[in-house]
Specification:
The complex is a heterodimer of chains A (423) and B (303). Helix content of chain A is 34%, strand content 14%. Chain A is built from 13 helices and 10 strands. Chain A has helices at 20-47, 49-53, 100-110, 122-131, 146-151, 231-241, 252-269, 277-283, 293-299, 338-348, 351-361, 394-397, 406-421, and strands spanning 88-94, 113-119, 138-139, 155-156, 185-198, 225-228, 272-274, 288-292, 312-315, 323-332. In chain A, strands 1, 2, 3, 4, 5, 6, 7, 8, 9 and 10 form a 10-stranded mixed β-sheet that branches. In chain A, helix 6 packs across helix 7 (252-269). The longest helix of chain A is centred in the first third of the chain and has 28 residues, at 20-47. The termini of chain A are far apart. Chain B is mostly helical. Chain B has a domain at 78-252: MetI-like fold, CATH 1.10.3720. Chain B has a two-stranded antiparallel ribbon. In chain B, strand 1 (43-44) and strand 2 form a beta hairpin. In chain B, helix 2 (63-70) packs across helix 12 (270-302), helix 7 packs across helix 9 and helix 9 runs antiparallel to helix 12 (270-302). The chains are: A alpha/beta (423), B mainly alpha (303).
Chain lengths: 423, 303
């Protein structure tokens, strides 16, 4: 074949000599550049800032309920479909946040294989979901990321025909402020954020102290404690410690306060920063931890043989004026199995399944059939962990983590970055 | 005529053989580095604050890079301690690795005799178990009631309970040493094995003692292998974050690998991860180039 005009090999070919350097150059010019251009095109079409970002992002809060627009690019699925047998449902979730027996019985009932991938925190999850290529069907976010998920068009609206079990859920979640008309979300679990400790390792009764949060700055417990590896949750604890109720503050003075006290915490008590308290506390790696109520409940199953669950203690303000949250289930637009995702959601809201799942993960589902006053009697909680019960009225008086406006979000994250870099 | 075509064919042969490797290098090194640069000097989308890479160097924005540089030293230099910590940990761990690996490799190469094969196999054995599994095993051993504390306290007789897993720099350094020592033994063994026994015998014949022989013959001849093995272990240590995550997970032992990992996973900060990657690359490539230059001039002087 005669060399085409402009063929970079043409001039060199007769001599038969291709220097290493020129070969490199040629390949860069001929091969890599178009590939990079393709990459560029692909990236800019998916992550283009102009597409949906022109409007200021809506930030839902209890006083500012939001009804999200229905996605036009990713419409809800049609009614009456059945999940294809032999298909795969890709679930994206925290580790140990879904009962394996529950997954197994779903697989058996619908002939669908469930693959669970895990993440450590919401930031990581959003980063990976936004990267696109993972083809995930179902995601378990907190309500504070729903604005970003809808804004970036990453979620698919739900078809309510499939989710008849919503009737078993606490009424306040039938029209939640973060997603009016539950167009995209159904609630998965409810939990509080408080302090867990082991009575056999910590001599003081943390819950009886005048300000229990002070424990994390108490040098006596240095090296014997852990805090949550979750920026907003840990940083808002600093505000609560100082009696500031607005845990979504955008005030620079509040952010500075968080900064100073977190850096002080590093120096005084050098905490572990992790989310594996449910495993570490029972293993005796430390005696005190900022914890989610569900994790302290779960911790009883990780205790070594011979250790009574009664050593586990949990404090959350009795009046409910602490951090209360709920996690959600959403169908991701990128997934290829939205029908199975709908069936899975409905399945998880079934009272029997929800109770069984609760028994494994320790996180309470907001189900009418589960009586919060009888969790101890029903064997879900040991007596010493009665305080880990999540009561419906907490959601009226407790504080909620909200999505922050971009500038504040950046300021908070900057403090977090500094904290995580160590001092 | 057939002769010349054959020669031309031979001349083409080697570049052709080099082609797959070159393509491999371009695809797996140059392209990713360019992507890192495009992210580092790129933008951030306003909703999810995910990085938007900018491919055209003309539009590159250096603000993320500046941000990182500004926060390394000075009053606001909160990245500084982590970088210094990385240097110290990696240096100490590398020296310890060498202290452990050199005698082992030396013995295997020179004195193992018929157990050589077995010893080598055993030295490679840790490669068969994933790094993650080996670290998880250490978590078990180092727990408060784990085997290590039981041994130290002589089964509970002494009140010597060390909280190994709560952010101890010692634990992290030992984790690094344990994790990377096998990678050092092999190149060292290969280098020491190549030193002809005759040279060492000659030194002894000429009146050098054991120490003198080692100092003036064995060590200089193995220096190249030492440098290679140091590079092989030090470079991955510089990017290591999971040893830290698993054995400490305290910010007080964060290394540059953790800074990279944290920034990558934090919306709006991905570009900064790129800045750290570039810094690590510079810091690790420079000594390598210097070494290559130094060894080349050395050879020229010798010959």
């Amino acid at each position: 074949m005669p060399p085409a005009a402009g063929d970079p090999f043409a001039r060199r070919a007769p001599s038969g000599q291709i220097g290493r350097r020129s070969l490199l150059k040629v390949m860069l010019a001929a091969g890599a550049a178009p590939a990079l251009a393709d990459l560029l095109a692909a990236c800019s079409s998916s992550g283009s800032p102009g597409a949906a970002g022109s409007a200021a992002p809506k930030i839902p809060s209890p006083t500012n309920p939001v009804r999200w627009p229905l996605s036009t690019k990713h419409p809800a699925i049609k009614a009456g479909l059945k999940p294809r047998r032999g298909s795969t449902l890709k679930v994206y979730n925290y580790a140990d946040y879904l009962g394996p027996q529950v997954i197994k019985s779903f697989e058996k009932e619908y002939g669908v294989t469930v693959n669970v991938s895990t993440f450590n925190d919401e930031d990581e999850a959003l980063t990976k979901i936004a990267s696109g290529g993972l083809d995930l069907d179902l995601y378990f976010p907190s309500y504070d990321s729903i604005g970003k998920l809808v804004g970036a068009d990453l979620v698919r609206p739900l078809n309510h025909d499939y989710i008849t079990n919503i009737e078993h859920v606490w009424p306040q979640f039938h029209d939640p402020w973060y997603d009016q008309g539950w167009r995209y979300t159904v609630p998965y679990t409810v939990y509080t954020t408080g302090i867990g400790w082991r009575a056999d390792m910590i001599k003081d009764d943390i819950g009886a102290m005048s300000n229990p949060y002070d424990a994390f700055w108490n040098a006596e417990y240095a090296g014997n404690l852990a805090v949550l590896d979750d920026w907003h949750t840990l940083m808002s604890m600093v505000l609560l410690r100082n009696g500031i109720d607005n845990i979504n503050s955008t005030k620079q003075s509040d952010i500075n306060l968080i900064h100073d006290q977190l850096m002080k915490m590093l120096k005084v008590t050098h905490p572990k920063v992790t989310i594996t308290m449910y495993n570490d506390l029972p293993a005796g790696q430390y005696g005190l931890a900022q914890m989610w109520s569900g994790d302290v409940v779960n911790a009883q199953y990780y205790l070594p043989k011979g250790t009574s669950p009664e050593v586990l203690r949990y404090w959350f303000p009795e009046d409910g004026k602490g951090e209360v949250d709920n996690d959600l289930m959403v169908v991701l637009a990128q997934g290829s199995n939205p029908v199975a995702a709908h069936f899975f959601i409905n399945y998880m809201l079934d009272p029997k399944v929800a109770s069984k799942n609760f028994g494994y993960i320790g996180y309470q589902p907001p189900q009418n059939s589960i009586n919060p006053d009888e969790l101890v009697a029903d064997g879900y909680l040991p007596k010493s962990l009665r305080s880990a019960t999540v009561l419906p009225h907490y959601f009226d008086v407790g504080y909620r983590l909200l999505q922050l406006p971009p500038a504040a979000d950046q300021a908070w994250h900057q403090v977090w970055q500094e904290f995580k870099a160590g001092a | 005529m057939p002769d010349t075509t054959a020669r031309a064919g031979r001349r083409l042969l080697w570049p052709m053989l080099a082609l797959p490797g070159t393509v491999w290098l371009v695809v797996l090194f140059v392209a990713p580095v360019y992507v890192v640069l495009a992210v580092l000097f790129g933008g951030v989308d306003p909703i999810l604050r995910q990085p938007v890479p900018v491919w055209n160097p003309v539009h590159w924005d250096v603000s993320q890079f500046d941000y990182v540089l500004e926060h390394i030293v000075g009053t606001d230099g909160f990245f500084g301690p982590a970088l210094v910590r990385t240097a110290v940990y990696v240096l100490v761990a590398s020296v310890l690795c060498l202290l452990v690996a050199y005698p082992v490799a030396y013995y295997t190469a020179r004195f193992a005799g018929r157990y050589r094969g077995l010893l080598l196999t055993l030295l490679i054995a840790p490669f068969w178990i994933s790094y993650m599994m080996r670290m998880l095993a250490w978590i078990n051993l180092l727990q408060n009631d784990g085997l290590v504390n039981q041994v130290i306290s002589l089964g509970g007789l002494l009140p010597a309970h060390v909280n190994w897993l709560n952010g101890q720099p010692v634990t992290v350094v030992l984790g690094l040493v344990y994790g990377y020592v096998p990678y050092m033994v092999l190149p060292l063994f290969a280098g020491l094995d190549r030193i002809p026994a005759a040279v060492q015998e000659a030194a002894r014949d000429l009146g050098a003692g054991r120490v003198e022989t080692f100092r003036r013959v064995t060590w200089p001849m193995s220096r190249q292998a030492v440098v290679v093995s140091l590079l092989v272990t030090t470079l991955p240590m510089l990017g290591d974050y999971y040893t830290n995550d698993m054995l400490s997970s305290s910010p007080q032992t964060s290394m540059v690998g953790n800074l990279i990992n944290n920034s990558v996973l934090t919306p709006g900060q991905t570009g900064q991860a790129g800045a750290f990657v570039m810094l690590v690359l510079l810091v690790s490539v420079l000594p390598m180039l210097l070494y290559v230059r130094a060894s080349r001039t050395g050879e020229e002087v010798e010959s």
